[in-house]
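Whether sequence alone determines local backbone shape is best considered at the level of individual chains. When preparing material for the folding task, we compiled for one chain both its residues and its backbone structure tokens. No coordinates are needed to read the tokens, only the vocabulary itself. For completeness, the protein is quoted in full, as a sequence line and a line of structure tokens:
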Amino acid sequence: MMKLSKCLLFFLFGLTVFSQNKREAMVPAFFNQSFQVSQLTSPLNNSLGATYVGDGRVFFVSDKAGIPMKLGTKFNLWSVDLITEKLKRVSTKNLCEINVLKYNVSGITVDDSNSFMIAALNDESFNDFLAVSRMTLLHIDLSHGFSQCAVPPFVKLGYTYSQPFYDDKSEYLYFVSDMPGGVGGLDIYRVKKNGVNEWGEVESLNEINTPNNEVYPFVNEDGRIYYSTLTASSGYDVYMYDFDKRSVPVRLKSPVNTKVDDFNFIIISEKDAVVARSAGGAQATILYRLLAF
């Protein structure tokens, strides 16, 4: 009986050590503020894929039509000025396939120096009719004063690649894919940018990936990654993971998460953030602004 007790003691000690090593990371002070929540985009359209590009502007994609003003059927690139909150269609002239009418854009990311852009768009011309909804990534080199475009070498035919985010500090490109090597469904991957138009090996972020879908990665300047996971209780919820602490992912509280789908969370500044929301029965996906006061 004594031997059994000792074994049990060592087992419980092991569990305690493991749980200590996997404690939840502390939530940054940003989330301890009070926020005013307001709509950035209209509920008459679908708007998502938000990314901050500097100069007080957020780029996003929307099926909002230009002129005439009617509901669009194609997702194009738009911007919102965070000072005036006015929306404007972004010109994609000379940006390769982005400017081709048959393509939908699902999101972009731009490096801090504006030397290159990674865009996600549908690749129906590269797939058979069974895969018309798949997305691919397009590398757009802007360093020469004009665009040179190519599909990155790590992109494989037949799989979806979407929701890109480039972290200048670590020089990693994060994206979402259903390619093999993940945990299941849509998973988050990253790949190191080794040089001009040069990329390393793709890594699956199995620390945060689950058998459900993980979508919309965003890495803040402090190195923490924010993303959304499909949950059984409230649809998509926003989580935070601290690479340095190697802790368990933390589900963020209200007003970031609500009872509907919450995803595409990005931090603009120490007082400003944006999140996309879409209820199961909703007619549209809307971008919301969280402004601290």
